[in-house]
Design goal:
heterodimer, A: mainly alpha, two-stranded antiparallel sheet, B: mainly alpha, 2 strands, about 0% strand
Chain lengths: ~375, ~375
């Protein structure tokens, strides 16, 4: 087990390095750096000024060196000005101007994540609160999604081919066919529009005081989460992922229900409810567990869409803002977080699968 | 003129869609009459789910084909006074144009119905081909990885996992951007990705006919000529005759979508190959002395077709969703383009007041993907019955 873990973590680190380098390369293309220079130093500067700005700010070194600097394994660049002052990556990072005081290396490993040009703040200050906001959203989405998906899957799978199975399977297929930007738009039009859907009807009957039933904008959820401002984003995320998990659960459940030990239990005279709950369920939930863990990185795309659609300033929204505004360091940091989340969930799902399924032995 | 109500709107839309209904009726009549002679496709008409899915998919395929006959207005032209018009609003001065905006107007006073129909064309122009290229890449790499194993397998699996560990949305933000289009990256990736189908067909035919050099030379020669001709046009925009070509925008989107899809196909094909290569008929072929490529392409691949066809349908649907995502973030599409994703994106700003502009393309996209998923489900069910 330990060797398995060590090997998995080794592969994970290599993967993380490869991925971050690809992101670094793609965000630091010459065209993007030129855009950065123009946003920082004025949009009408000439090509020569762009070149000198890039040179002054350490962007003219080879890509690999700069990746090392960013990572914190290569000493940051330094340059002496004419009047004896020294500047450099690490001098700027900690706001130091005296020569020789700043540390040699400053990067991810030292905890320096760079500055965000979009939010005019340190990336290390921008990311955590937004990650927290997204964590809350994800938590609620999972709380809604997982039990519903498992119930739908188990109900559909316990009697294969029955009418319940047909209805629930069709529902699951429909939910996988509805990406977040579709369900979000439909939800808003149906429940959060003052001119269409249910809200005008309800408010004309006097059932609700506000003009709309649910709010189509979740910005207020940052201060206080209420049922009315958080339901739609949570439902939107949960719906798309639910169908997939439900289908896996159903497939796993139908397979378990054909096993010998279920037949034995039946012949023994165990009631159907007991068979499902005590004999089938535990074995049927191994596959969905893996899928639910792997679903988390997949939810990330949904989170970005939902946060942009409902203007909820979380991690996904930050990623979008960073990408749109060419905020290189913020985008890099967000990518690192995303990649780590993906790799960690993969690792947990692998370990969990081995742990839950005694038939699999790792050597 | 008065605005018309929903019954008349629906009636008029049904009338506009007449070519689609006729084509659907013809296809269904022919298919159901001869369903016993049509193999797996014919069996589809035994399953209700499969039939519903097939009808939904074909509805949009025909809508895309006959879009020029169906649209009521030019999807790009703005008509004064129709900004955010509600469904069924009459034109102020029709002047020979269609009298109503059936599904209303968008924020730029364009007809939502016509844009929705034209959007089908945008999506169906890319999604099936992107899925097809992804499949050829996945098959061409997955078969040897599964069959030959060893270092090749380790390397390819690592690369596939690397791409799969990338959050899709991040890949899109990084890969589909105007700055990227200025660099050589999309061209290089297209150069690598698009050569694979040509190689695939060359090897496929060579493995089958290498004992008959005359036929082999003819077939392989034909594939090489057509394939390299298309390749030069699609990947490098250097087609001497100018028939094959892609705008940088489209190429960028295409490459990104293929890049996201191919690793998943690779994993599926590799898994199936690992399973099938232990079968007796593979051992028989090995004993006969067949080459590895013949065994992979003519013994293993045909026997893996069931799950692959099912996944192909699902993958077209997933590609449609991905294209919608790209449009939703305004990535890699022209600002006027009527594709569903960007129409939803433009409509969402006024969503709470004028929902119709975003709802129409959203439901269109959903019904197409739903149709593909139901079709896949029907195919899976029928192929399992054998």
């Amino acid at each position: 087990m330990l060797l398995f873990l060590a090997r998995r973590i080794g592969v994970m680190i290599v993967t993380a390095l490869c991925l971050t380098f690809i992101v670094f390369y793609l965000t630091n293309l010459p065209a993007k750096l030129e855009t950065l220079a123009k946003t920082q130093a004025g949009s009408r500067i000439s090509d020569a000024e762009v070149a000198s700005w890039l040179d002054r700010n350490g962007y003219n070194q080879p890509m690999l060196t700069r990746y090392g600097e960013w990572l914190g394994v290569v000493p940051g660049w330094t340059r002496e000005d004419g009047d004896g002052d020294v500047t450099g990556r690490c001098y700027r990072a900690y706001g130091i101007t005296d020569p020789g005081v700043a540390p040699a290396r400053c990067g991810l490993l030292q905890g320096y994540w760079g500055e965000s040009t979009r939010f005019r703040a340190s990336v290390a200050d921008v990311i955590p609160p937004r990650l927290g906001a997204t964590g809350l959203l994800m938590m609620w989405a999972l709380i809604v999604m997982v039990p519903m998906a498992l119930i739908v899957g188990v109900l559909a799978g316990m009697r294969e081919g029955s009418r319940t199975d047909r209805t629930l399977s069709t529902f699951a297929i429909a939910s996988t066919a509805t990406p977040e930007y579709v369900s979000g738009v439909v939800f808003i039009a149906l429940l959060a529009s003052s001119t269409a859907g249910l809200s005008p009807l309800l408010s004309s009957w006097g059932w609700i005081d506000a003009p709309v039933l649910f709010q189509g904008n979740a910005r207020s959820a940052l201060d206080q989460i209420t049922f009315w401002n958080f339901t739609l984003p949570v439902m939107t995320i949960a719906l798309y992922g639910m169908g997939y998990v439900a289908r896996i659960t159903r497939a796993s459940m139908t397979e378990v229900m054909t096993q010998q030990y279920i037949r034995t239990a039946r012949l023994k005279g165990v009631s159907f409810a007991n068979i499902v709950l005590r004999h089938a369920l535990r074995n049927a939930l191994i596959a969905p567990f893996t899928v639910i863990m792997l679903q988390i990185p997949w939810l990330l795309t949904g989170v970005v869409i939902v946060e942009v659609l409902f203007s909820y300033p979380g991690f996904g929204w930050t990623l979008f803002e960073a990408a749109v505004n060419n905020d290189i360091e913020l985008l890099l940091a967000a990518s690192v977080v995303a990649v780590i989340v993906v790799l960690l969930t993969q690792l947990i799902s692998d370990i969990g699968y081995v742990w839950l399924n005694p038939r699999i032995r790792v050597t | 003129m008065e605005a018309i109500g929903w019954p008349e709107i629906l009636g008029r839309m049904a009338l506009q869609l007449l070519p689609v209904w006729v084509a659907l009726a013809v296809v269904f009549a022919i298919s159901i009459t001869w369903k016993r002679r049509l193999g797996l496709y014919g069996k589809l008409f035994d399953s209700r789910v499969g039939m519903v899915g097939f009808a939904l998919v074909m509805f949009w395929v025909f809508a895309a084909l006959f879009a020029d006959m169906i649209v009521t207005h030019n999807p790009l032209s703005q008509i004064s006074g129709m900004r955010n018009a509600t469904p069924g609003t009459p034109l102020r001065a029709p002047a020979g144009r269609y009298d109503y905006f059936l599904l209303g107007g968008d924020a730029l006073a364009r007809d939502v119905f016509s844009r929705m129909v034209m959007g089908a064309r945008e999506v169906l122009r890319i999604a099936p081909f992107a899925a097809m290229i992804s499949f050829m890449i996945g098959i061409s790499l997955g078969l040897p990885a599964g069959y030959l194993g060893g270092r090749l397998d380790t390397g390819l699996t690592f690369v596939a996992n690397l791409v799969l560990a990338f959050p899709v949305i991040l890949l899109f933000f990084l890969l589909v951007a105007p700055e990227i289009q200025e660099t050589a990256i999309p061209r290089v990736m297209a150069g690598i990705l698009f050569i694979v189908p040509v190689l695939f067909f060359t090897v496929l035919l060579n493995a089958r006919y290498f004992t008959q050099p005359a036929r082999r030379n003819l077939y392989v020669g034909a594939v090489m000529v057509v394939g390299l001709w298309a390749y030069s046009g699609l990947a490098f925009n250097a087609d001497p005759l100018g028939i094959w070509g892609m705008s940088p925008n489209l190429l960028n989107v295409f490459v990104a979508v293929v890049f996201v899809n191919a690793p998943t196909v690779f994993r599926i094909v590799r898994g199936i190959t690992l399973d099938i290569k232990t079968r007796d008929y593979v051992a028989a072929a090995q004993t006969r002395g067949e080459g590895p490529w013949y065994i992979m392409l003519w013994e293993i691949l045909p026997n893996a077709r069931g799950p692959l066809i099912v996944d192909f349908c699902l993958r077209i649907g997933y590609t449609t969703i991905l294209l919608g995502t790209l449009g939703f973030f305004g990535l890699g599409v022209a600002s006027e383009s009527p594709d569903w994703g960007s129409t939803i994106n433009q409509g969402r700003r006024l969503l709470t007041v004028y929902p119709h502009a975003a709802i129409a393309p959203a439901l269109a996209l959903m019904s197409l993907v739903l149709g593909l998923n139901l079709l896949a489900d029907g195919l899976r069910e029928e192929s399992l019955k054998d």
